[in-house]
Amino acid sequence: MKLQQFLGGIEGLGPVAVEKRVFVQPWEARLFGVHATMMGTSIWAWPDLRVKAEGMNPLDYFKYRYYIKWQGAMAEFLVERGYIEAAELDALTQRFLDNPDTPLPEKGNPQITERVIDYLWTGDNPYRNIATQPKFKVGDTVCVKDVPLGIHTRLPGYLRNKVGVVEVVYDGAYLYWDKGPTDGLGTPQPVYNVRFKTTDIWPEIPDHGDVLYNDFFEVYLDSVQQQ
User: Fold this and answer.
1) What pLDDT, on a 0 to 100 scale, did the predictor assign at position 2?
2) Average pLDDT of the chain?
3) Which residues, in sequence order, are CB contacts of 49 under 8 Å at separation 6+?
4) pLDDT score for 179
5) pLDDT of amino acid 189
6) Using CA atoms, how far apart are residues 53 and 70, in angstroms rounded to an integer?
7) Last residue of a domain, one of 122, 154, 178
8) How far is residue 227's CA from residue 153's CA, in Å, rounded to a whole number?
9) Half-sphere exposure of residue 81: CA atoms within 13 angstroms, side-chain side
10) 191-197 vs 141-144, strand pairing mode
11) Which domain holds residue 162?
12) DSSP designation for 193
């Protein structure tokens, strides 16, 4: 498993940077606008971004700020899909580096603008109001699977093979947008909130009765009897 797919629980990487500003630099806001346009016009989806970002060298992943990862992922995606040639992108990048005050192109398209605004209002709702038959019920003891990794995962690495108790069975079913390969999340499925004793996860810490809660897609859980 790549470190960036561990989703928490890693020590020794230095202090956690707490940045309260949404955008640290002005270009990040513009980049988010490009991302929203790509999402609103169905050019790509969240998994495309996450797969590309998590494909980075782990040392680079932890070195760069949030939107720098976005920038690299978006550029790689657009080149791969033929929206721009790599040489053209390099030339434009150098042009703006050499002349930072060069005016940016303005090419408004009312139809695209309308689609993007609609996307920003409606978003990507993973909830599906369909009948389901959850495999587990509140109070069941479950074990988190150690599933084979796809390119992307929504399973925290530090909870693999850990045992907990189902606290909540959410209504309906939920879909993860997996245009890119993931580890079993291609269909709507029940989602559970599971409670863990922190000492079962990190045995070396003092036992103060603390607990940790995490939401899981059903595909990530087994009953303890199946282990």
Assistant:
1) 65
2) 87
3) 35, 70, 73, 74, 77
4) 54
5) 92
6) 7
7) 122
8) 21
9) 11
10) unpaired
11) 128-223
12) E
Asked whether residue 185 falls in the same domain as residue 210, the answer is yes
Q: Provide the CATH number for the domain around residue 97.
A: 1.10.472.20
In the chain, how many domains are there? 2
- Answer yes or no: do 80 and 134 share one domain: no
Cα 64 versus chain centre, distance: 16
Which single residue is written with the structure tokens 């060298």?
A: 57
So what's the pLDDT on residue 226? Answer: 53
Q: What is the pLDDT of residue 177?
A: 63
The verdict on 116 and 172 lying in the same domain is no
Stretches in the chain below the pLDDT threshold 50? none
- For the stretch 113-157, pLDDT in tens is 999 999 899 887 888 888 889 999 999 999 999 887 666 778 888
The SS3 assignment for 55 reads: coil
Q: Which residues in 74-226 belong to E strands, given as ranges?
A: 127-128, 141-144, 163-169, 173-174, 191-197, 211-217, 221-223
Residue 113 and residue 14 share a domain: yes
Entry pTM: 0.78
pLDDT of residue 55: 82
180 and 51 in contact (C-beta within 8 Å)? yes
State which of 73, 94, 122 marks the end of a domain: 122
CATH number of the domain bearing residue 205: 2.30.30.50
